Amino acid sequence: MKNKKRKSTQEKIDIITQCRELGWVETARKHDISYPTLQNWRNLFASGGEPALSGRLNMSNSEIKKLLHENQKLKELVAEKELEIRIKNEFLKKK
Question: Where exactly are the structural domains of the chain?
Fold first, then answer.
């Protein structure tokens, strides 16, 4: 199996440009990239340009904090549900 390295943002843009010339499947084979990955890159580039393709988010600190807080709450809910399931399973085993 080949050791695959990450592509830089400029390499991704160049590959997307090649896709328009050579076709999506041929370009995917040439660069040893899956077709869905190319489609994802194309969609990201179309929706947000180079910043979206590079993974940089254009969010304010307040938006990031809000998402982190929401993520923490969801983790706590999942933990509570997991605990409930374990308790129920233990109770059922004892019967």
Answer: 7-58, 59-95
